[in-house]
Amino acid sequence: MSFAFHARRVRNRGLPYKYRYTALRCAVGRHMPLGFTATWQYITGVAGSVRSDEPALLRALDVLEASRAGQLREMAAFGARRRAEKQRGYGVRRDEQRYRFGPRWYGADAHEAMYQTVQSLWAEHTALPFPEMPNHDKTDALIADSYTAGCIWSYLRSGGQATGDNRAVLRRCVASLHRRPFGGIEDMETFRYFLGLTKMADLVLHDALPLIRRGSVDDAAAVREVFLSATDDKPYLRDTEPDAGNPEWINGFLACGYSHELWVAELRGRIVAFATLSIDQLGHLFVMSGLQGHGIGTDLIVHAKRARPEGLRLHTFQRNTGACRFYERHGFTVSGFDDEPGEPDVTYSWQPRPSAG
């Protein structure tokens, strides 16, 4: 039976209450983005005593339906974007595969759901002993466990944030755990231990760090919103490019060739930042005003450097001192000035450090 079928039964006052309660559990079985137990614990924790309280039962269904609706919208947009990307020869990055299909809550309450789930899973995990393993696997397993657990503990201690070096460490830990799972059929204790650790790491990653992915004209409304938010207190930036983020602006930029790329930062299903890259230039980088200073701009800079390992240059206005300090912190140095009449700008360049030896 479908999710909609079970949802109708939950709302059907003509049914005995125990059947409506069972129908809610069946609905969770059709939409359990955190796994069955964690999804059930979250929606009932928000709603109250669903076993005997009808308003709580309906509240729990509302929470579940809102998450499912968010997932359906997101997956529809993902499908449309993937069809366009395939025509251009682009594949799906592994980090986006994990983000789209791994454990993650959808909707406005995504942070609360994932943070509470990690809290619960962490309490269970810390009560487990480290599994017995062959010595040739144990060293790698201990290292993976130590670094990953450190990132999870830091996330919980900070109220749901990943800061500083923990951001890069967490990404490496998640990639490593998925690349080389520990345990298996012959060692279920180890397998379950690291499966739980991997699930927590995925949830922390998907809650605290943005997905960096290719943007397209379908993202125009969100990109425009980011631009307007980031420039709200800097009207001179809007005056320079008043159409930034509009569909025509994105289409015109991407039509310049394959070297012209739009990258967006998506956090909990919402685009919160974007950057443009051309042959050797970082053309734009904007982060929503309420999320500046949280490492999202740094994630885009790191990605830009990886995409252009030979070097980058950019232009920004001299009076945009916050942007100047940001680029200087990330290894860009001044390589020129433009003091022509109008808004004077400064050119920054970044070159990779020469390899040792």
Automatic annotation (TrEMBL):
Residues 210-354 form the N-acetyltransferase domain. Residues 338-357 are annotated as: Disordered. This is N-acetyltransferase domain-containing protein. One of its GO terms (molecular function) is acyltransferase activity, transferring groups other than amino-acyl groups. InterPro entries: Acyl_CoA_acyltransferase (IPR016181), GNAT_dom (IPR000182). The lineage of its organism: Bacteria, Bacillati, Actinomycetota, Actinomycetes, Streptosporangiales. Residues 348-357 have a biased composition (Polar residues).
